[in-house]
Task: structure prediction
Amino acid sequence: MSATGTVARTWGVVLTGLQGDLVEVEADLSHQTPGFSIIGLADKAIGEAHQRVFNACANSELPLSRRKLTVNLSPASLPKHGSGLDLAIAVAALATEAPMDPASLLATAHLGELGLDGRVRPVPGVLPAVAAAVRAGIRRVIVPHANADEAALVPGVEVVGAVTLRDAVRRHGIDLDAIDVAPVPLAAAEPVADASIPDLHDVIGQRDAVDALVLAAAGGHHVLMSGPPGAGKTMLARRLPGILPDLGDDDAVQTASLRSLAGLPVHTLERTPPFEAPHHSASVASLIGGGSRTVRPGAIARASGGVLFLDEAGEFAGSALDALRQPLESGSIEIHRAGFRAVFPARFQLVLATNPCPCGNYGVPRAECRCPSLAIRRYLGKLSGPLLDRIDIELSLQRVAVARMRAGDESRVSSAEARGLVVAARARAVHRLADTPWRTNAEVAGTWLRDGPLAPAPEIRRPLDDALQRGALTLRGYDRVLRVAWTTADLAGRDRLTVEDIGRALYLKRGTRA
Result:
């Protein structure tokens, strides 16, 4: 920040999705009709900032000049939204007359909303905003006191937590007495009954499903589980994050940034993959993200790097399910609004669970289904063909019998054991894909699988070619079967695909047999 005559400058940050842009905040005093105007493609929240800033300064015993005050947000062509620029606007406005250090102002970015009493209120998105400031060369940020722990997760920057506006301006050379004021706290998070991940050892009598779940975790594959109520679909899905590898540094920061953008508290970098399970009444916007002025990440973005679990998939709106098709292919979601475009990551592992019919008894031994055939077709029709074509593993589960419960005890697998298998298989895949941009089998391009240096020989892929020829598979399904086959080989410790790998992958895809 610098001051030249009556012009003062400092920095703020605005976010569009996860992308942060540095904004130069200029304030100028002129001999015109007294007033306070903000220019630079600001939205309504920023347009109202002049009143918040004026009252906050007055109540902090730092009154603004009665001359014409103009604040410019540069670059003027960049849309700006939200109240996170309040603090930067106030500091720049005060610096037009107060003797602040210009070098200090230029080296600092300010983030935070101002209350009328002068306290600095927390804002969402502090973590990605501070990261953007650091990438732009800023080495000190002043943030709301409640967001200081979150900002400190970004390395290479000095973080100052300000309780009030007075705390912020004191950092730039103004000699003010400290005032003991209670900081504005973060909004209380929704209570979580139990944040621990249940153990896979709790699952009884579903060894085939457990093996398929380990396979899905090892390759990052999408799963559909169909079966009657009580078969263990939800139980299995909720144990998937516990057998996935820990998040790396970049993925952990990305997950925390998305939580911050969603307005959720962030205190540490969580290494456990995220798990999102929206209710079946969720709208398209809540799944993929949206908003008219400020775009917030949806469930698919918050699940990036982890698991998106859609329980009772047949109860979701068909439009909501079909909205997943493009993100499943691209690994990202673009949200377009008038004047701007936001991009969020969407590289999640999809797990769908559904009953075979509305009552759940269709095809269940010794159970009576009373659903009309039309109701069954309509229920299962929510899962469209294009969506199912993007699913790698389709499991059909049955209820566990008492005898099988007893017999299954010895064959149960713990999450720690399964996780060891997953980590070893992923390490094998990383080694095989070392000269490629991919790190898991689910990410590998179909052309590389079919024509690359490790493409299976014609006699190995003959069952797959036959399934494609008779219409049992699409070309997309062909590629997905190859990905699952490679994961099967990784779990078995093989460097090349075998007919058995192809056969198992075909069976897991709609029960297609080689």
